[in-house]
Amino acid sequence: MIQLIRGFRDILPGDVGLWQHIERTAIDLFRAFGFHEIRIPIMEKTELFARSIGDTTDIVEKEMYTFPDRKGDLITLRPEATASIVRSYIQHKLYAQDPVRKFYMVGPMFRRERPQKGRYRQFYQIDVEIFGVMSPLADVQLIYLLHVLFDRLAVPDTQAHINSLGCPECRRGYRRVLVDYLNTVADRLCADCRRRKDTNPLRVLDCKVPRCREALTGAPSILDSLCDDCRQDFDTVQEHLTRLEIPYAVDERLVRGLDYYNRTTFEMQTGLLGAQSAVAGGGRYDGLIEMLGGPSLPATGFAIGLDRLVDVCGLEGSRYYKSPDLFIAALGEASQKLAFEWVCDLGIRGIQAEVDYQNRSLKSQMKQAGRHRARHALIVGDSELSQGTAILRDMTSKEQVDIPLDGIVDTLLQRLNEDK
Ligand code: HAM
Question: Which of 262, 240, 265 is nearest to 250 (CA)?
Fold first, then answer.
């Protein structure tokens, strides 16, 4: 048979309930803070990602699903959402009335990475962006939202890691001292890092190869290269994180895998996913809107890896699988006709009822009710019909009561709602 593409996966009905709960919890929180949903296309011109994420990043160099369309234009399945949201903000002049805009979006992203635990080629992000706010308090608010969300989802063992990448000015200075250092340890670096040291030296700090990590123990810290404004900005972030009692660690090696960042960057990291420690990541990218042809306006945001969040959240997935409120075991043609009408009537009033259409024995219908994990069963056959009643059975306590057929839908509605 034809199988899934490697690195892609199905999210099956038994798991989807938890995904939906997480999405709803996140969306409720973001809406309460004034964020609005934006929906962006799955594909964009390749150039959009190449220019914003950076030509020398892993994503653009080797992970994008890029192909020519029928006219030969290069298009790419989106590897992230930020570039598209910026493009949309510029294209529709969303800054014209008020440059301050707050967006969220939820959807699939595509990166052709080597699949492993917590790493997929199609994965899902919940992305959040604030445009037009220069104050570092916007960064603090984003980290606060992540902190609150993770708390609401009972995510254990995560911590905010923060760093500052400074402004282009301080980064130029840092780049120089870093390259000087990397040249002194070049023979101890992996082949990738020997190349990166000349193309994108900051990325070397992020290499997971043990010998590179060792070689970097004496590397200079970017925090020592910050100019006064960037230093003050980063101090403000820390002061407010402390005031909001959000635990965090300053991590001067946190450089992120996309080139558009400046000043504060952050990740929510977990010990639960092996090498894939980042459940969410983001930061400020003040130059991107202008770089893509818009006005000179600051921006900051983050994206949560939803697949990873589902894996590490402390909630029991089966709790979010909606099992039927009622299973109707109907015996005989007359009962089945009635049962079908009741199911329709209950369904439009929000009660999920199931019925077996195969005219099976009572025993096998009750087994089916158990398999469906229905909370109640309603038993109705010819003898019940002649008595004008049906039997309502609580599938957990096994208690049974007779209920009159007259007004049965209203009675069921009342009883099942009481039980919810
Ligand atoms: P990112 O760090 O590339 O940032 O991705 C954000 C999150 O997406 C990661 O922390 C991780 O949880 C998840 N993720 C990334 N790649 C994979 C994968 N292959 N499989 C599963 N999960 C993955 C961005 O994408 C930026 N656009 C975030 C941002 C928004 N910065 C500012 N605004």
Answer: 265
| CB of 131 closer than 6 angstroms to any ligand 1 atom | no
Residue whose CA is at the smallest distance from ligand 1 atom 1: 281
CB atoms near residue 380 (< 10 Å)? 25
Per-residue buried b or exposed e for 162-185, using 16+ beta carbons within 10 Å of the residue's own CB: bbbbbbeebbeebbeebeebbeeb
Alpha helices in 244-353 (DSSP H): 288-291, 306-312, 333-348
Q: Is the pTM of this model over 0.85?
A: yes
- Taking the C-alpha atoms of residue 392 and residue 395, their distance in angstroms, rounded to an integer, is 9
Q: What distance in angstroms lies between residue 390's CA and the mean position of ligand 1's atoms?
A: 55
User: Running along the chain, 420 residues long, what does each successive block of 10 average in pLDDT?
Assistant: 97 96 98 98 98 94 96 97 98 97 98 95 98 98 98 93 96 94 94 90 89 92 96 98 97 92 96 85 98 98 97 90 94 95 97 91 94 95 94 96 96 89
CA–CA dist 196, 204 (Å, integer): 6
**What is residue 111's three-state secondary structure?**
coil
